[in-house]
Amino acid sequence: MSAIELPITGMTCANCANTIERVLRKTPGVTDASVNLAGERASVTFDPAQTSAAQLIERVRAAGYDVPLARVELPVVGMTCANCAHTIERIVKQLPGVAEASVNLASERLSVGYLPGAASIAEVVAAIRRAGYDVPTQATTADRASPSEVVRTAHRAEIADRRRRMVVGLIFALPAFTLSMSRDLGLLAALFGPHFAPMAGHRMPEHIAVDWILFALTLPVQVYTGWPYYRHGYRALRNGAPNMDVLIALGSSVAFGYSALVLLGGGDGHVYFETAAMILALISVGKYLEARAKGRAGAAIERLIGLTPKTARVLRRRDSAQNDTYEEIETPIEHIAIGDVIVARPGERIAADGVVVAGRSAVDESPITGESVPRDKQPGDPVTAGTLNKEGVLRYEAARVGKDTTLAQVIRLVEQAQGSKAPIQTLADRISAVFVPTVLAIAVLTLAAWLLLSSDFERAVINAVAVLVIACPCALGLATPTAIMVGMGKGAELGILFRNSAALEQAARVGVVAFDKTGTLTQGKPAVTEVLSFGDVKAESVLALAASAEWNSEHPLARTVVETAEARRLPIAPVGRFQALPGRGVTATTTNGSASGAAQHLVAAGNLKLMQTQGVAVDAQASQGIAQLQAKGRTVMLVAMDGRLIGAIGLMDTLRPEAQACIAELKRRGIFTAMLTGDNARAAQAVAHDLGVDEVVAEVLPADKATQVAALQTSGRGAVAMVGDGINDAPALAQADIGIAIGAGADVAIEAADITLMRSDLRGVVQAIDLARLTARGIRQNLFWAFFYNALLIPAAALGIFQQYGPILAAGAMAFSSLFVIGNSLRLRRARV
């Protein structure tokens, strides 16, 4: 199976999204399709053996919508006949993401329309060359387009078109409305005489002239401003899924048509040309502002996409006799290969994931991890694409390029998550599917009821038009996806990645957070916490002797002791005979111990079993000191010299500096905390006591952690989140309602976890839950407003409460409702989490 993201233009309401979903799902080979109205994207999973990107795009276009493509023309060398042209067209069209391919044999040029991100110029060129033809090298770097550039270009074109139609609508509608209001209020009669006032029973020629002026002002609005609504409304009806455009087109055309009949027939009824014009003008204003606001909703992902530089300086070998000389060549990032050495100067962005091979600098990683403090980089340190080199010059070797970089994975994950549907959206989708037919039925009933009860055809038509125009399926369709887009975009800026919108919704319900201990609540690296000395030996000498004995050992505790002694600048004596005793410790002979000059001494460092086998006695004082260390949950290393116990070293996996604050913040939010660990109970209890964790389950195997998570899920405290490294705790993460991988960056964690924290900071757990709760609250507010608005104002319009200018007021209210929903979602961008 393959997955593809299609940018879509032309959608106006939830019915449009539902129509595209239905059309795509009926395509042979498509297993799933989800359309995000706010993000204007379709996520499609399909079998490439049965369908292709080109066929999917054709299906969308046949439904009346469009998919913007990047286009490029490439010169092709080596064609000799029409068969060559057909061969190239066929091969290029088979590439994933290529929608169109046309070869002009006479000019020897290939025109390609493709989805950037799903296909690239490099892939097209490679396919042509495999077929036995060639593309000049200089042509392969031209006309590159990124997904964001294509979408932004299409979005800018759509906004520009909406703006033009809005301006034309306002230029003609406002004078029409002013003229009509002036006549109705008697202002024309006061200024120009009584002949301009409406006359009872018949109309004077002067009055008819005003109607013709209103007709002339309204006609451009109907034809130009209203054309998209008529076109999209017709296509929606043809697809059997009437949408908002049907309501607008029908409402405006009924008002215009009724008025035209009155004017042409010479009847005595009132004309409503200004109503038809103002409906389209006001809704066009709303749609223009809505398009701009939707662009801001996706601003976070656009900023992520914009982090990738277009070119990079790659070191290439000079073409000369001196094969060991190199020069910097500025190269499009599409041409960077694994193993290339890239140069990043101060102020330039890293172009690929890699490892520093030369230079020192500070790198701002905040776009990826959310960490505000730049990190120092030196040879051997990793660097990530999209991060910013701040100070010195770095040379780094590319390890992952293009679609495989961490930044590309993050962008792909955020796009997929934004395009997914939250479970709460199901209700809105079900209502949207029947919303427009229901409104049409209410409008017909309104017309019939007013005719039956009042016999006032004019009033009946106006109230029916008000019902059509005031109904707003857009607010229902935008309520969930706009909040999801903004929430996930905010999360990406903070280094918090939600796998999909269901994970975000579930995270808002978390009532229990379970943590792995080692590497999650702790640093995952032991540290020396205490050094005890027995007798007349100093503590520094105990640590130095232990480091001397452990110098050749590879055990993690041994390396910690050696590193601690080195950091304290203690003298480490050379050793002679060395012996490692698994499960007990080490013995070694020193030739320059700090405790006894240059004489040789036998030093033993290990646990109590080692002391017993070495015949070392442990007196009451030593036993008491050892017991105190063990009570604190320390791992104890005993040190003996020449058969006499001289000291004990306490080691412990140190807590993350933010762990205590994280637990406290979770408890402040009413969330129950638990710790699951394979460590001994005493050490686990010590950590839990220091942090304030509510429940501890110790000495549990990784495979059994899932059982413990299941037990927490039956506690009735709410959804359970499990925080771990994303690999060792995989069963527990899978069992939990929400799996949170901390300090990930690893492919496995990014792909497997429900929530991935890009930096190793437990505060991200609290931020993720806070953000999920804020987003869920925004969704509930949006849905309430959308339901409340339609439930209140549709009956009000049907009852004629808005009187003569009901359709105009309805058009303004309808435009405001969508803007309110989007504006409420955009508030999440300013939220502090």
TrEMBL record:
It is a multi-pass membrane protein. Keywords: ATP-binding, Cell membrane, Copper, Copper transport, Ion transport, Magnesium, Membrane, Metal-binding, Nucleotide-binding, Repeat, Translocase, Transmembrane, Transmembrane helix, Transport. It comes from the Bacteria. Pfam families: E1-E2_ATPase (PF00122), HMA (PF00403), Hydrolase (PF00702). GO terms for cellular component: plasma membrane. Residues 2-68, 70-136 form the HMA domain. CDD domains: HMA (cd00371), P-type_ATPase_Cu-like (cd02094). The chain crosses the membrane at residues 166-192, 212-230, 242-265, 271-289, 431-453, 465-489, 783-802, 808-826. Its main location: membrane. GO terms for biological process: copper ion homeostasis. Belongs to the cation transport ATPase (P-type) (TC 3.A.3) family. Type IB subfamily. This is Copper-exporting P-type ATPase.
